[in-house]
Amino acid sequence: MDLVKIGNFLKQLRKEKGLTQEELAEKMGVARRTVSRWETGNNMPDLDILIELSDLYETDLREILSGERKSGKMNEEMKETVEKIAEYSAEEKEKRRKKLNRYFILGEIFILLVILDHQFGILSKIFVSPIDDFAAGVLTGLSLLFNFIGFYDNSHEVSLRKRKRELFLKKGS
């Protein structure tokens, strides 16, 4: 997928509708910066948002995914669309999984450092006496923070997708 081409096409569609990035961001429930990232090809909207954009711009989803207007309907195009959606979905899931793994790994590294400090006094060899306790506290806090971010980020994303899907279904009714 050519993200820059798709981004340029999204920008073109937005301008055809006479919307600013701020107005589109408000309609989609995202930040203006997020819309900017879509239009520069730095990021892609979630599948739910792509469907909403397709409805808003009154264009076919496969046109958005290819980054250009198509004429006529062909079975081959439908097959390509399904493949692109599957590819996009798999890429998004993989990015999400890697992001969560980074948070958890950082959290576990920090907690491991605290455990090693309690067993072997590693921090007391690096820092002077009162600071080593502070450093251990900071590491403990960071480990809890990164693990919390990982859990929160995952559950927040699931609830956002659920709300967007419900909103989309209400629009269709």
Roughly what percent helix?
A: over 70%
* Oligomer designation: single chain
How many strands in all?
0
Radius of gyration: 23 Å
- Span between termini: 32 Å
| Main sheet specs | none
Q: Structural class, judged by helices and strands?
A: mainly alpha
Q: How many separate helices? A: 8
Order of helices and strands: HHHHHHHH
- Number of separate domains: 2
Rounded mean pLDDT score: 79
Regions with pLDDT < 50 over 5+ consecutive residues? Answer: none
Beta-strand content: under 5%
Concise structural overview:
With 173 residues, this protein is an all-alpha fold.
Give a description of the structure.
It is a single chain. The chain has 173 residues and is mainly α. The chain folds into two domains: 3-66, Orthogonal Bundle (434 Repressor (Amino-terminal Domain)); 76-172. 82% of the residues lie in helices and 0% in strands. It has eight helices and no strands. It has helices at residues 3-16, 21-28, 32-40, 47-56, 61-66, 75-120, 122-126, 129-172. Helix 1 (3-16) crosses helix 3 and helix 6 (75-120) runs antiparallel to helix 8.
Note the main attributes of this structure:
2 domains, 434 Repressor (Amino-terminal Domain), single chain, mainly alpha, 173 residues, elongated, 8 helices
